[in-house]
Amino acid sequence: MARVKKKVRQQLLVQQVREKPFLTDEELARNLAVSVQTIRLDRLELGIPELRGRIRQMAEHAQNKVKSIQKSEVVGELIDLELGHSGISLLRITDDMVFEKSKIARGHYMFSQADSLAQAIIDAPLVVTGVANVKYKVPVHVGEKLIAKAEIVKVRGNKYFVWVKTHNDRQEVFRAKFIMVSWAEAKGM
Amino acid sequence: MARVKKKVRQQLLVQQVREKPFLTDEELARNLAVSVQTIRLDRLELGIPELRGRIRQMAEHAQNKVKSIQKSEVVGELIDLELGHSGISLLRITDDMVFEKSKIARGHYMFSQADSLAQAIIDAPLVVTGVANVKYKVPVHVGEKLIAKAEIVKVRGNKYFVWVKTHNDRQEVFRAKFIMVSWAEAKGM
DNA sequence: TCAAAAATTAAGACCTGCTGCTACTAGCTC
DNA sequence: GAGCTAGTAGCAGCAGGTCTTAATTTTTGA
Fold first, then answer.
1. B86 in contact with A at a CB cutoff of 8 Å?
2. For the range A17-23, what are the long-range contacts, defined as Cβ-Cβ under 8 Å and sequence gap of 24 or more?
3. Which nucleotides of strand C come closer than 7 angstroms to any CB of the protein?
4. What mean pLDDT is reported for chain A?
5. In what helix (H) or strand (E) does residue B62 lie, and over which residues does it extend?
6. How long is the CA B40 to C1' D13 vector, in angstroms?
């Protein structure tokens, strides 16, 4: 690690701390080829808490996070919603959504995005998926942003017919037709 | 907090630490009306690490957990596999797989279980989901164990037709037909 | 080119939350 | 009374810092 300008070093510092929050000042100092004191000053300027503080934050955060990550009722980010009609959601394909070998996204993510969106746009308190017909058109890779657009095309009794089309920035990658059922009274399908 | 017998105190200690891992020895000592030293001895006997250790564990755990939760290539536990023919997998529905209100399992879990199983039984290096037709027959609740059985019913070129049927301990709750495509050369579907 | 400003390093006292060790006491039990 | 367990106490030392004061080096601007 060669010596670099202050600004550059501070950027590197931020980066390192983000990637490996478990580094002590001493280790950081070695990595960046400056003294421990300099690291401390940098942390002060940048508002980066000390190792123990960082760890503590993660632990506290983690307690909630582990829950909330899985708890998210919607896979993807709702970016538009017209209850009872349509909705749009965005999902970024990250490294942990793909097969290690092929780097192709596992199908459940597209399905989950579509399924939760289909759920979300229906204006009823209790909705479950009844039937799904899905087609994967092209493989999706890491880093792609998937836009799913859902639309209720028909309602019959407690059954909602929803179409979802998912695009990346170039083409349609996935489409699905769902029959969603609003539960509550209706026990038969 | 009245003084209690050693065994009782140690049980309480374990309990407190589990519930609130962020308590220092001093606070624990106050809570249990003994000296700090006693708490230290107790921790030693019980193999409870110090505050910083506990926090650190949580933080590390959390980092992996977030990843590994999503990383599992197969949703559910493979309990039988005849490559190229069939397979069986087991999935326990836990509290974080259900809708908070209704306690009904979100559909993607059954789909994901089926989809990964369908993937797993195909004897080819690169397989993606092409088409899926799924039907949810009855809602699934927390605590149920789902047994998915998959079978390859037809192979045509690089396309594999797979049927998956998922039961709980009483009845069929879900079924799916997949067309899986072994990738590699074949770019068209 | 030279002084002022900025950046870096150093040194020392202090903090928290411990570990590890030795020592002591009280209460019971055989 | 000897021997045991359980509980306390005190002190040195450690990691990984904070906070402060000060000296040294580098850069920069006029």
1. no
2. A17/A48, A17/A54, A21/A51, A21/A54, A21/A55, A21/A58, A21/B59, A22/A51, A22/A54, A22/A55, A22/B56, A22/B59, A22/B60, A23/A51
3. 7-11, 16-21
4. 86
5. helix B51-71
6. 17
Q: Does A19 touch chain B (CB under 8 A)?
A: no
Judging by DSSP bridges, how do beta strands A127-136 and B127-136 pair with one another?
antiparallel
Cβ <8 Å between A63 and B58 = yes
> Is residue B68 predicted with pLDDT exceeding 80?
no
Name the CA radius of gyration of chain B, rounded: 24
Protein chain B, residues 5-34, with a C-beta closer than 7 Å to any atom of nucleic acid strand D: 5-6, 9, 33-34
Q: What is the dihedral of CA A78, A83, A87, A92, to 10 degrees?
A: 20
At A3, the pLDDT band (50, 70, 90 cuts) reads low
| Torsion sign, CA atoms A124, A129, A132, A134 | positive
Q: Which stretches does DSSP call E strand in chain A?
A: 77-82, 86-92, 127-136, 145-156, 159-167, 172-182
Mean pLDDT of B144-161: 95
- Whether the per-residue pLDDT at B65 is higher than 80: the answer is no
What pLDDT shows up at residue A102? 84
Contact A86, A149 (CB under 8 A): yes
A69 touches chain B (CB under 8 A): yes
Phi, psi of B30 (to 5 degrees): -60, -50
pTM summary value: 0.63
